[in-house]
Write a structure and sequence with these properties.
With 170 residues, the chain is an all-alpha fold. The protein has helices at 2-35, 38-69, 82-88, 94-142.
């Protein structure tokens, strides 16, 4: 059982390291978005995907270890968490202290990552709004204003000036 506890602690620490790396990537991503460095952003996104797939594999491994450690207890499959594993050990045992410290570090790292992701989401939304504004502005610059032509009923005909702006024919 002690070997499985050591494996669980190692997996939790490795997950924490992955989240710390993703945090660094998120900081770089923010700078790339602000400075419009698209090539670097594309490479960073690829690196993020690699770390994310590594995290997915670690999650599967963690869940397997938790299931093994809780196999003798009467917990339902949905209740298999690191906290339940911690509860298996005595209050001042080394296993409990190690798992608790690793879990707390993982939670802190994931929380920090979540906060930065929320900030980046807001930044990206603002950047998209700015792009949409620019596109609307450029479209309106290319579109000529409506002419002041009216029909018999005094309604505007809705005619636009030609794209050149002036009609040379008379």
């Amino acid at each position: 059982m002690t070997e499985r506890v050591g494996d669980l602690i190692a997996v939790l620490k490795e997950e924490t390291a992955c989240y710390d790396k993703l945090y660094e990537f998120a900081q770089d991503k923010r700078d790339y978005v602000i400075n419009r460095k698209l090539a670097e952003l594309e490479k960073l996104t690829s690196d993020e995907q690699n770390i994310s797939s590594r995290l997915k594999n670690l999650e599967k491994k963690r869940l397997g270890l938790i299931a093994e450690l809780l196999s003798g207890s009467d917990h339902a499959k949905e209740d298999e968490t690191v906290t339940k594993v911690i509860a298996l050990f005595e209050e001042d045992s080394e296993e409990r202290k190690g798992i608790t410290a690793a879990r707390d570090a993982l939670v802190a790292s994931a929380t920090r990552m979540q906060f930065l992701n929320q900030q980046n989401e807001i930044l990206l939304k603002q950047a998209l709004e700015m792009v949409e504004f620019d596109l609307t502005l450029f479209k309106s610059l290319r579109q000529a204003p409506e002419t002041a032509n009216y029909n018999r009923n005094a309604y505007s005909t809705g005619d636009f000036l030609p794209s050149s702006g002036f009609d040379a024919k008379q």
